[in-house]
Specification:
Structural class: mainly alpha
Number of strands: 6
Organism: Luteimonas terricola
Strand content: under 5%
Pfam families: COX1, NorB_cytochrome_c-like
InterPro entries: Cyt_c_oxase-like_su1_dom (IPR023616), Cyt_c_oxase-like_su1_sf (IPR036927), Cyt_C_Oxase_1 (IPR000883), NorB_cytochrome_c-like (IPR054309)
Helix content: 55-70%
Distance between the termini: 43 Å
Radius of gyration: 27 Å
Protein name: Nitric-oxide reductase large subunit
Keywords: Electron transport, Membrane, Respiratory chain, Transmembrane, Transmembrane helix, Transport
Number of helices: 27
């Protein structure tokens, strides 16, 4: 059996085992999720909430934005509190206040440290003891706790109404006035907040650890890091070091053993015949630029809401476009424009790889393009209607705002998008089929490319696995099948296969060598990328097994990044291999930027928050945002632009590029992204980390913390990075537009004649 076949067998075995473990862990999560009782009653028999009321309360929370305004269990937006953490702290303070008055006749905050500590020790057993009865499906709480619930619920009734006394707090949270007009809806949403906080402080049966592994940090109620978090964090670091050592050894033994390949004298890409379907892909890049520019504008608006919570430079923007919507659309558009660039690259390269243009391929490409526009416009309109209270709870799940970060669109639009991805899969399969059947040195790369296409399409079905009233832990599990496995799994495979094809097609790398390298890289990516998903679920109502698997395997995600510098050198070397490679300078430069941000954003900042003990204190802070921005745009956005530029070079071979526009945009992107991270996200995240460790997670996300002068200064310091980055977006959009404008043409291209004009 040759090396290629062995690698294919190894990859197949790895995928079978890892996905089997994924499904088994999903069953475990389903069985061990925090119970949602049929009713919550007091010891005196009063019904506080029913399951139906709790579920309706969650619907209310989702309909006005859900995870896009504040967060639950650390998942969601960074502006506004984590509602589960804040409720927990306010409920504990309400009980402490009642006991201080009853026992000592004084306000709690007037007591000495000894008396406060004694009262805290009193209330912890009541809060942490599990009083849920599975036989009757009932949660029993004390009358005292029920009174505390009334106190905290009254606070949230004021926050989410038009109560003038809470106007400043709404502005700090970037909530528009009267975001939830119905008083009953506000009461029911408070019930959901109570249940979410109950799961964070209530110990599992037979354990001294809560349903969320003592997250969030709050010393008053005894929520501190668990021994499990420390132990598996240490183990993950050791496993990462061992993985890096093995990979470096493999690289030293096998890399660079072949004789260098002599590049061809002319650019082979000029001989690629541009088919009608490939030419039809051009409009996708117009859409990419349109979505990208809107995303940048919404990102700047979202960031500015941290300063003016209900306005933009005095204009009452929140009346028509509140923070909830700007952040929803900003995060969704990031995924949409990057995915569109990658889909378009696949549609362009598939006929180029096989040399085959299937019948009606152009029609399919055009139909998919129209469908993408309809999905964006339709889903965004539904979300606006939901947040502005014009849709109603009955239709929100299907056509409005689901409230789950990155998977916010209504179920109808999710199904439509899934159908679109299936169409993309069919279009790719039809075009690649001759290359898959040839069994030459490129067939394995084509096979991996098609495997990633299948996985990208089918994995989106995970977004259809939950129902409107599914448990939040189960929804979180399925949601990260998309968020994680798309980005840190099969998009990686897609990218490696596409870039390898490009270098093989350009005659810079041998096909067999590229095939072996791609298969090996895929195995390395998948070894950590699949089961590494569980590091998102440490505190999502899951068991210790999730921490064990997530911590151990997610550490392997960092392993391939150990060789980023060497891979970047290979890319740079290929870019300088022959004079005609100057035509492909800017795609290569963006690929180099991918390597840099892969090391910094995905590697350093990713591992910073990856271990259980680190994430316990950093989840839902600006340190996670620093990782998110630098990894999502720095890696996948830069790669999307690089792939787009490669396709545009083939679509417009005669046009002389205005390289000044690309050069300026390239440096604006890198400098702007760096300024965002260094001037705002990292220092603000460090301040939140300190606040969390000293006081608790509730304080790191509180209005009191966010109103500090230093925080306002750091938020304003985001402006230089945003402006520079936005300039990069305008410049790259101007460049793309220039390719379709009348301009000077070059008919005698250095390195060879042009094959087909696009």
């Amino acid at each position: 059996m040759d090396t290629t076949k062995r690698l294919w067998w190894g990859l197949s075995a790895l995928l079978i085992v890892t996905f089997a473990i994924m499904l088994w862990m999903g069953r475990e999560i389903h069985q061990q999720a925090p119970p949602l009782p049929s009713q919550i009653v007091t010891t005196s028999g009063e019904v506080v909430y029913t399951r139906t009321e709790l579920e309706t309360g969650r619907q209310v929370w989702q309909s006005f934005g859900g995870q896009q305004i504040g967060s639950i269990w650390g998942h969601g937006a960074l502006l506004a509190p984590d509602w589960s953490a804040e409720w927990l702290h306010k409920e504990a303070l309400a009980i402490l206040e009642m006991r201080a008055q009853d026992q000592l006749g004084m306000a709690y905050d007037q007591l000495g440290a000894d008396d406060q500590a004694r009262l805290q020790a009193q209330i912890r057993p009541e809060l942490r003891t599990n009083t849920y009865d599975p036989d009757t499906d009932t949660l029993v709480i004390s009358d005292e706790r029920a009174r505390a619930i009334d106190v905290v619920a009254a606070h949230y009734d004021g926050v989410f109404s038009d109560n003038p006394a809470m106007a400043d707090l709404r502005e700090t949270y970037a909530l528009r006035e009267n975001p939830i007009p119905d008083a009953e809806h506000r009461r029911l949403m408070s019930g959901f907040f109570f249940w979410a906080s109950w799961a964070t402080v209530t110990e599992r049966p037979g354990s001294d650890i809560t349903y969320t592994h003592n997250f969030p940090h709050d010393p008053i109620v005894g929520n501190t890091p668990t021994t499990t978090s420390f132990m598996w964090s240490m183990f993950s670091i050791l496993l990462m070091i061992a993985g890096i050592a093995l990979l470096v050894w493999h690289y030293a033994v096998w890399h660079g053993k072949e004789e260098p390949l002599t590049p061809p004298k002319t650019d082979p890409s000029l001989a690629i015949a541009v088919t009608p379907s490939m030419r039809a892909v051009g409009k996708y890049f117009w859409l990419v630029m349109g979505l990208f520019l809107v995303q940048i504008l919404l990102g700047a608006t979202t960031a500015h809401y941290q300063v003016e919570g209900q306005a933009a430079y005095g204009l009452p923007l929140a009346d028509i476009l509140p923070y909830t919507l700007t952040r929803t659309w900003h995060t969704q558009l990031a995924i949409l424009w990057i995915a569109t660039a990658w889909l378009a690259t696949g549609l362009y390269l598939a006929p180029a790889i096989s040399g085959h243009e299937p019948k009606f391929q152009r029609l399919g490409v055009n139909f998919l393009f129209v469908s993408l526009i309809l999905i964006v416009v339709g889903s965004f309109a539904g979300q606006w209607m939901a947040v502005m209270n014009k849709l109603g709870l009955a239709h929100n799940f299907w056509f409005g705002h689901q409230g789950w970060e990155y998977t916010d669109i209504g179920r109808f639009w999710q199904i439509y998008l899934f159908i679109g991805l299936m169409l993309w899969l069919v279009l790719m399969g039809r075009a690649l089929w001759p290359a898959l059947r040839r069994k030459d040195e490129m067939s394995s790369i084509a096979g991996l490319l098609f495997l990633s296409v299948i996985a990208i399409g089918l994995l989106y079905a995970a977004g259809l696995m939950w129902r409107e009233h599914s448990h939040i832990s189960i929804i979180t599990y399925w949601r990260f099948w998309i968020v994680h496995l798309w980005v840190e799994g099969f998009f990686e495979v897609f990218a490696v296969a596409v870039i390898s094809f490009i270098f093989v097609k350009l005659g810079l790398v041998r096909g067999r060598s590229a095939t072996i390298a791609v298969l090996f890289a895929t195995i390395v990516f998948m070894a950590g990328g699949v089961l590494g998903m569980f590091h998102h679920l440490y505190f999502a109502g899951t068991t210790t097994a999730v921490i064990a698997v997530g911590a151990s395997i997610s550490a392997l995600e960092v392993v391939p990044l150990a060789l980023i510098g060497l891979e970047a050198y290979d890319t740079w070397k290929n870019g300088r291999a022959t004079p005609w490679m100057a035509r492909h300078k800017w795609p290569i430069m963006f690929f180099l930027a991918v390597s840099f941000w892969n090391l910094v954003g995905a590697g350093l900042l990713g591992f910073l928050i990856n271990t259980p003990i680190a994430l316990y204190f950093m989840q839902g802070t600006n340190l996670t945002a620093a990782h998110g921005h630098t990894a999502l745009f720095g890696v996948y956005g830069m790669l999307g632009i690089g792939l787009m530029l490669y396709c545009l070079r083939g679509l417009k071979p005669h046009v002389v590029w205005r390289e000044g526009l690309i050069r300026s945009s390239f440096w604006c992107f890198n400098i702007g992204l760096g300024l965002m991270a260094v001037l705002t996200l990292l220092p603000l995240g460090v301040l939140q980390l300190e606040a969390n460790m000293e006081h608790g997670y509730w304080y790191a996300r509180s209005a009191e913390f966010m109103d500090r002068p230093i925080v306002e200064v750091l938020v304003w310091l985001r402006t230089p990075g945003d402006v520079v980055f936005a300039a990069g977006g305008l410049l790259i959009a101007a460049f793309v537009a220039s390719l379709w404008l009348p301009q000077r043409r070059s008919d005698a291209l250095e390195g060879g004649e042009v094959g087909n004009e696009a």
